Amino acid sequence: MIYPLDDARKEITSLLKKVLSQLEYDCKVKLEIPPGGLGDFAFPCFSLAPIAKKSPNDIAKDIAKKIEKGKWIEKVETNGAYVNFFIDNKNLKNSTIKSILINQKNYGYLAKKNKKVIVEHTSANPNGPLHVGRARNPIIGDTIVRIFKAAGYNVESQFYLDDMGKQVAILAWGVNNLELKDVPKPEYSKPDHQTVGFYQLASTLMGKDEKVSKQIGEIVKKSEEGEQKAIDLVHDAYAPVLKGINESLNHINIAVDKYVPESNFVRDKSVDFVVEKLKQSKYCGKEEGAFYLDMEPFGIQGRNTKFVFLRKDGTTLYATRDIAYHLWKAKHADLLVNVLGEDHKLESKQVEIALNLVGAKMIPRVIFYSFVSLPGGKMSTRRGRVVYIDDLIDECVKRAYDEVKKRRGKELSEKKMKEIAEKIGIGALRYNIIKVQPEKDIAFKWEEALNFEGNASPFIQYSHARACSILSKKQDEIKDVDATLLNHDSEIDLIKKLARFPIVIDDACEGCKPHSITNYLFEVASQFNQFYRDCPVLPEKNNKLRIGRLALVDSTRIVIQNGLDLLGIVAPEEM
RNA sequence: GGGCCUGUAGCCUAGUCUGGACAGGGCGAUAGCCUCCUAAGCUAUAGAUCGCGGGUUCGAAUCCCGCCAGGUCCGCCA
C-alpha cells in the first residue's frame, strides 16, 4: 500500500540525499513539518554548519539550488537555515481523495507484515468487578491491538488469568463458607458484582480469624502444588466474576481473544523448567531453603535486591510462573506487547532479566500506565472504596442520553436516542482515557470524565454525523471527481490532514502511542468544522465543485470512521 | 534510605525518545456568530518564570548534573 503523502516524503528524502552526497555533506536526512504557510516538509541545515564551515543560511541556499524537480515537488524555498519543500497540491489533492475513496474502510491501513503480535492486557485478579483505578488497562490494551492490526500485524489479545494467588483463594473460601445473607448487597445483577461480596467479607474475616487464614493458605498451597481439586474449586469461584468482567469489556467494545490461566504453566511443568534453568544461573543463590536471583548486578536497587523464584516449600511464585508464560508466548508470536500498571515495573524488570538468563528469544515491550485515583486517594476492592467500570459506563451513557434528549428530544424516537446515547457515552469514556499519555497520573473526576465538548469524543462523532447528514441529502453521484477544484484554504488544509492518516497510524504503532490517534482525529474534526463553515456543499451551484466537495466530505467521513474504529469508538450517522 | 515515572496558563493536556522557525490544543472566562448542509459547532480577546538551580550547544520544554513536589515500587504477595 503506497499512500500519496508518504510517497512524496520518500521522494523528497531521496532527492535530498542525492544533493547532500553531491555536496559531500555526510548527515542523516530528518524532515520536519514546518509551521503554517512555510511548506509541507522542511530540512534544517544547522547541523551541517560545522561540516561545511559555512553559515547554515548559505548551506540552505546551496541545497535548495541543487534540488531537482520531481513528481511531487512543486517549489523549494529557503527560509533562514531551512530548506522548505512545497508539494504539488494538485497531485496531492487528486491522489489523496482517490486513495481514500478507493480504499474506503482500509484507507490508512498499512501493508500486511505477516508477523504476529500478542498483546497482553487487563489481566486483572478475578476477585471482583473491574474498577476505574485500572480502567486504563483494557482501554489502552484494546486500542494497541487495533492500532497494530491497522499497521499490518496479526494480533491476538490475551488476558493472563491469575487463578493461583491468594486473592482468588480468598474468594474461593468465601464462596464456599459464607452465607449469601451475610455478604454486602450488590448494586448490579452482573455475576461479578454478585460474587465480590464474598471476597470482601472473607478478606475481613481472614484478618480477624486465624482459622480462616489457615484454610485459605491451604487452598493457595494446594493449587500451587498443582492439585486439580483445588484448582477446580478456585475456578468455580472466579468463573462468574470473569464472566462479569468480560461483559463489562464487551460493553465498551473490547473482545479478549484468549484467557490464559496461570495454572497451565504449573500443570504442564514448564515452570519447573524455568526453575531448573534459573538454578543453574551464576546469579542464583539459596537462603533458608528458598532460591533467589541476585538482581544487583543488573542495576536493581533498593532495600532488597533478591528476587525469590522458588519458596522453601518448593512452590513457585507469581513472577516465576510469569516467566514460563512469557516463554510460551514467545513460541507463538513475533512480537510481544504487555500493558501493565506501574506497580508492576519491578516485577516486569525481574521477569525480563530472568528471561534473558534462560535464553529467551523475545523480551516483551511493556507499556506502563499510572493509576487513576479518586480525589481522596487510591481505590480498593477489598475495602469497597471504588468506582466500578460499570458505574462509569452507566453514568456516561445516562449523561449522553440527557444531552441527546435536550437537543433532539422532539424529533427522535426513544429507541433512537438510547442507541445514540450508548455510542456517545462509551465513546466519551474511551476517548477521555486514551487521550492522555499512559504514564501520567489521573485523578478521577466525574466532571472531566463526562466532558462532552471540545477535545472529546462527541466533538469528533459530531463532525462525522454532520458529514453523514450532508451525504444523505446529496442528489449527485460522487464520480469523475476533480479535486483540483478544491482551492479554498479550508479545503486544502483538510485534504492535507486526511493525507497524513497513514503516517499517523505508523507512528502510533511504532511508538506505542495510542494517544496520538486522538490528537490527530481532533485536528481532522476541527478542520472539517472550519470547512463546513467556509464551504457550503449542497447549495454550491457549480456542479463540478459541488461533486468535488462531496468527495471531500465522504473522504473525511471515511477517515473519521476509520480513526474512531482504531479507538474502539462507534461513528454515529446522526446524533 | 534507594530505584522508576510525572511536574507545561485558574484547571486538563500536546510537544520530550530523535534539541531547531513565534511552546500547539481543550475546559473555564470575556465579546461576537443560527431567515444558510445538525450551534455537541465557528470567530475573536485575555491567560505560560515549560517545578527550581546549574551545565552542554550556534540553539534547550526537549540532553546532562543537583534540588523540590506528587505517584509508584523495594514481600518466600499478586
Structure description:
This protein has three domains: 4-87, Gyrase A, domain 2, CATH 3.30.1360.70; 121-268 and 318-373, 3-Layer(aba) Sandwich (Rossmann fold), CATH 3.40.50.620; 394-566, Orthogonal Bundle (Isoleucyl-tRNA Synthetase, Domain 1), CATH 1.10.730.10. Strands 6-5-4-10-11 form a five-stranded parallel β-sheet. A three-stranded antiparallel β-sheet has the order 1-3-2. The chain is globular. It has 20 helices and 13 strands. By secondary structure, the protein is an alpha/beta fold. The model has no long low-confidence stretch (mean pLDDT 93). The structure holds one RNA strand of 78 nucleotides.
Question: Which tags fit this structure?
Answer:
3 domains; five-stranded parallel beta sheet; alpha/beta; globular; Gyrase A, domain 2; Rossmann fold; Isoleucyl-tRNA Synthetase, Domain 1; 20 helices; 575 residues
Give the distance, in angstroms, between the N- and C-terminal Cα atoms: 34 Å
Indicate the structural class.
alpha/beta
CATH topology of the largest domain: Rossmann fold
CATH class of the largest domain: Alpha Beta
Could you give the topology of this structure?
Blueprint: H1 4-22, E1 41-44, H2 49-52, H3 56-66, E2 73-79, E3 82-87, H4 89-103, E4 116-120, H5 136-150, E5 154-161, H6 166-177, H7 191-208, H8 210-224, H9 228-251, E6 258-261, H10 263-267, H11 270-279, E7 284-287, E8 290-294, E9 306-310, H12 318-331, E10 335-341, H13 345-357, E11 365-369, E12 372-373, H14 389-408, H15 414-434, E13 442-443, H16 446-449, H17 457-473, H18 489-510, H19 515-534, H20 543-566
Parallel strand pairs: 4-5, 4-10, 5-6, 10-11, 12-13
Antiparallel strand pairs: 1-3, 2-3, 7-8, 8-9
Helix pairs in contact: 4-18, 6-7, 6-8, 6-9, 7-8, 7-9, 8-9, 11-12, 12-13, 14-15, 17-19, 17-20, 18-19, 18-20, 19-20
This protein binds one RNA strand of 78 nucleotides through strand 8, strand 9, helix 12, helix 13 and helix 14.
